[in-house]
């Protein structure tokens, strides 16, 4: 009888330790949240960064120059990077695969169907050079434009895995730390959700001890995929209020942490 009691206690203690490890696996927190913003829009500089700074949070900005506006933003992006925000690679011209429903915006000269892998690699490395000239950094993460990962049947980033710590995809899912694919990190694209809906996603990540990546475009306008300033603000304030349990950090920091964890395992 005593042996059975000891065995049960040992099993309970083991289960408790496993649960305690799981609930603090994200840099000592219950889950991880990454706030990403695509395309390098003016609203990122005018709306998003002031909002993030007001609550002491840092974001990841995947910059492209398809609208020929980067030249006028360089000073502000340099300042944002110096203050801890991440500048990520989103290619120079944002090429996507045309011919799909909703892809009428894709012009022939930036249609992946007309690209070669070599051309794409040169374009991505050119953007890395531009970003390094802005923030002085050599480590970088990437975001697939439109979520397109292949040119015809070839995954174009396969030849560039050493160029990036991680690459963000577009599949809406939350993964535990051991399941995250750093070359295709899942995320939730946001378009019109309320603040409560955004917060519900965070609560789900907290309950499941997973990684939650948000993908925003126009925060307050400037893009067809948008979210209101109020909804975005509600999310940021909820994150700030729950920093004890949520690790909020740029993609590159979270990706490095995941990489180290997975290598140890």
Question: What is the element layout, followed by pairings?
Answer:
Layout: H1 2-23, E1 31-39, H2 42-55, E2 60-63, H3 74-82, E3 86-89, H4 117-135, E4 141-143, E5 150-151, E6 154-155, E7 166-168, E8 188-189, H5 195-208, E9 211-216, E10 218-219, E11 226-227, H6 229-241, E12 246-248, H7 251-264
Parallel strand pairs: 1-2, 1-9, 1-12, 2-3, 4-7, 8-9, 10-11
Antiparallel strand pairs: 5-6
Helix pairs in contact: 2-6, 5-6
Textual characterization of the structure:
Mean pLDDT is 93; it is low at 5-20. This protein has a single domain, classed as Glycoside hydrolase/deacetylase (TIM Barrel). Strands 1, 2, 3, 8, 9 and 12 form a six-stranded parallel beta sheet that branches. It has a two-stranded parallel sheet with strand order 4-7. The protein has helices at residues 2-23, 42-55, 74-82, 117-135, 195-208, 229-241, 251-264; strands at residues 31-39, 60-63, 86-89, 141-143, 150-151, 154-155, 166-168, 188-189, 211-216, 218-219, 226-227, 246-248. The longest helix is centred in the first third of the chain and has 22 residues, at 2-23. It has seven helices and twelve strands. The two termini are 37 Å apart. The chain is an alpha/beta fold and 265 residues long. α2 runs parallel beside α6 and α5 (195-208) packs parallel to α6 (229-241).
